[in-house]
Amino acid sequence: MAASTEPPSLKPFTIALVQLGQVTSDKSKNLPHAREMILKAASREGGRKPDLIVLPECFNSPYGVMHFLLYAETIGFTSGQPYDIKTSQSETVKMLSGAAKETGIWLIGGSIPERDASDGSKLYNTCTVYSPQGELVTIHRKIHLFDIDIPGKITFKESETLTGGSTMNMFDTPFARIGLGICYDVRFPELAMIAARSGCQVIIYPAAFNMITGPLHWETLHRARAVDNQAFMSMCSPARDSVEGYQAYGHSMVVDPMQVSSLSHRLCSKESMNRRGTVLTQAGHLEEVVYADIDPATFHSARTGIPVTTQRRFDVYPDVSREARAVM
Ligand SMILES: NC(=O)CC(=O)C(=O)O
Fold first, then answer.
1. How far apart are CA 239 and CA 51, in angstroms?
2. Active site residue 73
3. What is the CATH number of domain 13-325?
4. Cα angle for residues 31, 183, 328 (degrees, 5° grid)
5. Whose CA is nearest to atom 6 of ligand 1?
6. Closest C-alpha among 92, 151, 142, 146 to residue 122
7. What is the ipTM of this complex?
């Protein structure tokens, strides 16, 4: 979706990250389980109910290049055109839309393998987003495919079966403008930077790091994107419970833009630290739902205290986000 020029002002809201477990090779089990966990996340007790629920990358199929063709669904969404859920060919889209409507909560529906609707020749790794009325409001196709080779540790080549998306995507809610990406997209800072410069106060990526790259970079990349862009940054992972195949790292996380160093930890009172935590929430490695309350005061104090957003030197280097806006 092309976001309107003025973003909504950031309001307090609560995110629920559903770190889904039990993603099996049986889609007829994966979908009801994901639905059950969405309902569980929505019916939180002892805390603010979530305004937005997020699922992980590749939640209806095992994560592996040999599985994408078998599990792919045709979605057939075109930005700016009405989408009729009733006639959708995607059973996952129907389930997610129904769950968003039933809970009355915004839903970032993780990602699924998608078959191109035009001639079926291309497959994408695609995230779908739903309003509380169950409308499919936007999709994001993973732009940067996960092609890596760390000898003896991990080799993965999404490009063997997938095609990379070619649009940047964001959406507006009554409480924030939210920038989208999927997993490996986080390693390309331009995407989050362009989202932030286009008014996103929050950046959310369904993801599935693994046991090699997760310990190396998962938290660092959250912190880097949050500090660079002075925005809230979150990735939602599957749980690490698969007996074979891809082992997800877990540790779904929300990080705020006002990062407190270990030195400030010692200098700040406990009460002020509670208001300015770096990692607002973090899951373990098993299935669980974690919540984070987004406080606009943290966002505004980060941007006014260290005003990099108004100090850029576009007389010295170009503003790449200007040209990028045209393709959104
Ligand atoms: N799975 C991914 O797309 C990315 C990942 O695991 C990494 O960047 O590390």
1. 22
2. no
3. 3.60.110.10
4. 100
5. 209
6. 142
7. 0.99
For residue 43, give both structure tokens: 């019916």
Q: Which of 73, 114, 142, 287 is catalytic?
A: 142
Give the DSSP letter of residue 118.
T
Per-residue pLDDT of the chain (328 residues; tens, 9 = 90+): 445 589 999 999 999 999 999 889 999 999 999 999 999 999 998 889 999 999 999 999 999 999 999 999 999 999 999 999 999 999 999 999 999 999 999 999 999 999 999 888 999 999 999 999 999 999 999 999 999 999 999 999 999 999 999 999 999 999 999 999 999 999 999 999 999 999 999 999 999 999 999 999 999 999 999 999 999 999 999 999 876 789 999 999 999 997 654 445 445 554 444 444 378 999 999 999 999 999 999 999 999 999 998 999 999 999 888 877 545 4
- CA-to-CA distance for 86 and 3, rounded, in angstroms? 26
Domain boundaries, the chain: 13-325
**Ligand 1 pocket mutation pick from 146, 154, 191, 252 by most atoms within 8 angstroms of CB:** 146
φ and ψ of 197, to 5 deg: -70, -15
Could you identify the atom of ligand 1 that is nearest to the CA of residue 209?
6
